[in-house]
């Protein structure tokens, strides 16, 4: 197998906790078909290059934090790409994430799908909105899962509720067995002034 392997996320930042997983990026560089663990993120060189050229936030995440743990080339692939283009789509990204969050909150309110799944989607949207906003509101982009609490604008939900939604995400994506008070987390999420928080973020982005 000819590929580059990177770690990114909490492991690369030194923020590993008992609930952390290890984010692994694989960039296959050969023509042969290979199978990788399902939890690993596998992107072709062309896709990664397009992300760098268009200034996607994920490209900046990799550029600033990914650590190469194996490379089949003299110069690791990400290093060969240089600096990504300027990230200029924070507003559009936040709009898309707000739509995703709104749909998830409606599902939570109507109980029409898995509550665990929708709580996890809400967590992801809130986290990623804060990450996109950090480009403007902080001195440097923040890719921590705690990004909503690191912005200068108060997070509209408590750390307890946020952590509960995060554990719901882990349960739905990893199959982990977490003891989650889904009903109270859902109730608190629905009551939180999340839309006001997003509007305030938009006034800066």
From TrEMBL:
GO molecular function, one term: nucleotidyltransferase activity
Pfam families in the record: NTP_transf_2 (PF01909)
Native source organism of the sequence: Nitrosomonas oligotropha
Domain Polymerase nucleotidyl transferase: 4-27
Leader sequence segment: none
Keywords, sorted A to Z: Transferase
Transmembrane spans: none
Presence of keyword Transferase: yes
The UniProt record lists the keyword Transferase: yes
InterPro entries xref list: NT_sf, Polymerase_NTP_transf_dom
Protein name (Swiss-Prot/TrEMBL): Nucleotidyltransferase-like protein
């Amino acid at each position: 197998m000819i590929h580059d392997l990177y770690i990114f996320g909490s492991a690369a930042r030194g923020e590993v906790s008992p609930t952390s997983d290890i984010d692994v990026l694989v960039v296959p560089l050969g023509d042969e078909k290979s199978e990788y663990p399902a939890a690993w993120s596998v992107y072709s060189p062309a896709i990664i290059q397009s992300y760098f050229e268009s200034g996607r936030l994920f490209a900046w995440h990799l550029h600033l934090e990914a650590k190469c743990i194996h490379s089949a080339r003299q110069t690791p692939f990400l290093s060969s790409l240089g600096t990504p283009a300027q990230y200029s789509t924070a507003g559009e990204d936040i709009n898309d994430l707000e739509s995703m969050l709104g749909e998830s909150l409606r599902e939570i309110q109507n109980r029409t799908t898995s509550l665990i799944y929708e709580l996890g989607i809400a967590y992801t949207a809130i986290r990623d909105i804060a990450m996109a906003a950090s480009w403007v509101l902080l001195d440097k982009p923040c890719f921590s899962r705690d990004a909503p609490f690191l912005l200068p604008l108060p997070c509209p939900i408590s750390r307890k509720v946020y952590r509960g939604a995060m554990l719901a995400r882990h349960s739905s994506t990893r199959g982990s067995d977490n003891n989650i008070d889904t009903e109270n987390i859902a109730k608190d999420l629905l009551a939180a002034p999340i839309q006001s928080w997003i509007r305030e973020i938009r006034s800066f982005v």
